[in-house]
Structure formats: C-alpha cells, structure tokens
Amino acid sequence: MEEKVQCEAVDVAQAGEDVEEKVQFAAVDVAQASEDEGQALAGTLAEFYEAQARWGRDISVEERGKMIEEASKAKKTRLVKRIEHKLAVAQAKKLRAEKLLAKIEASMIPAGPDHDQETITDEERVMFRRVGLRMKAYLPLGIRGVFDGVIENMHLHWKHRELVKLISKQKTLAFVDETARLLEYESGGILVAIERVPKGYALIYYRGKNYQRPISIRPRNLLTKAKALKRSVAMQRHEALSQHISEVERTIEQMKKELVSIASYIITPSSSLKLVF
User: Fold this and answer.
1) pLDDT band for position 114 (50/70/90)?
2) Which of 97, 191, 206, 261 has the fewest CB atoms found within 10 Å of its own CB?
3) pTM of the predicted model, to two decimals?
4) Strand 163-168 versus strand 139-141 pairing type
C-alpha cells in the first residue's frame, strides 16, 4: 500500500516538471518571435540579382539619360542656392562696411586748394627735389593715410628745415597723387615732387619763403589716429567684399548657364540598366 502511494507521488511530481518545462519553452519561443518581428529581413546579394533578373524592367537609353540629367540638375540647383546664400551674406557685410565708412568720413572735412598759394620757379623745384631725395629723415605714411598727426609732424619738421619728405607705401600712383594734394591743401606747403623710391613713393614739400607756423598745428577737420585706422580697415573690408561678390556673381552666372545646357545634354551609355519596382 505504501509503495503504491509513493509511485503515485512520483508520477504527479514528474507531470508537474513536464508542465513547467513546456511553459518555459513557450515563453522563450514568444520572446524570439518578438525579436524577429522587430528586425527587418534582408536578402543576400545573389537573391537581389535573382529578383532583379526575374521581376526587373529594362531601362531605355532615353530614360537613363533623363534620370542622370535630372540628378545632375538637382545637384546644380542645390549648389546654386547655397552660393546665392553666401552672396546675400557678403552683400549684407558690404552694406555694413559702407555705413561704417560713411559714418567715419562724416567727421572729416578736407580743406580745398588755396588760390593765393606761393609758387616756386623750375630751378628752385629741381634744387629742392635733389636736396629732398638726399634727406635721410622722413615721415612714414602708413595704412591710416592722412590724419591730424601727419600734418602736425610736418609743421614740426618745418620748424628746423625748409623741406620735409614723406614716404607713402601706396601702390597706385593715382592714390599717391590724391594723398599728395590733400597734404598740400591741409599743410599749406608747396608740393615739390613725387618720386618713386625703393621704400615706396617719396613726397617732398617746401614750406615757402613766407611760412608762418599756425597757432594750432593739429587740424581739427581731419580724422584722429584711431578713426583713421578704423577708416582704413573699413575701406580694405569694403574692397575685399566687392571683389568677393564679383567672383560669386560670375560663378552663379556660369552655373545657371550650365543648368540651361543640361537640358540639351545627351548621354550615350554602353549598357542598359534594370530597376526593381
């Protein structure tokens, strides 16, 4: 009787273990199925070629050329839009530089020519030119150009000698001539000569026989040293932006011509292509 009860208990325990194992296996299968559903199925390259050969469609030469043409046109269009944005940014910077330059130059009131100015003879001009070129002392004209400190230094030089020599590092003769005339009007001296020297352009001025030192040797109508530097930087920025804008405009014009010519561009491929839809 006891042996029969023990056998029944073993059978019940074995049946419970079997049920527990079935439940665990079912949970594992459900988890793997959910993971498989979250991942995309991808075939091999051979399967892709097989599907393309079975269900693909041959593309004609005209369709292939049209597709390449549209892709090239879209790429060019995006590039043109990007360059046009750069052009707009450069134009905005140029406008700001122009406003800053106009604001600085508003405080500068250059003097005009003096009709009662003293003159010199040709012989005196030749002599002053020779003496001025031999002078070792000179005033440098840097990127600031003409400002109140330059005129002050000219009068300080005229206190001890009749001539003063300035060296300008401007590269264009037209700008040098404009600077020389401005110095002549502001200082009241006589421009003797503008000569090319290794350091730049030499400007030689004679103070005149009837020279009288002004009460204020620093003119109030010119820019200060700090404002002259700001003006020079603004002019350089404006010139650089103008050149950059011209180059960008030429690039945009050339790319627009290429977009027009793409429509008539014909491609002759050597092989056909298939697409799977």
Assistant:
1) confident
2) 261
3) 0.62
4) parallel
From the number of C-beta atoms within 10 Å of its C-beta (0-12, 13-18, 19+), residue 53 rates as exposed
* Euclidean distance between CA atoms 103 and 234, whole angstroms: 11
| DSSP 3-state of 138 | coil
Query: Which of 260, 243, 255 has the alpha carbon at shortest distance from 83?
Result: 255
Same-domain pairing of 137 and 158:
yes
H-assigned helices in the chain = 2-38, 45-55, 61-105, 122-134, 148-158, 173-187, 225-262
Find, among 151, 142, 139, the residue nearest to 110 by Cα.
151
Does the residue 181 lie in any domain? yes
Flag whether pLDDT at 267 surpasses 60. no
For residue 173, what are the domain limits? 122-222
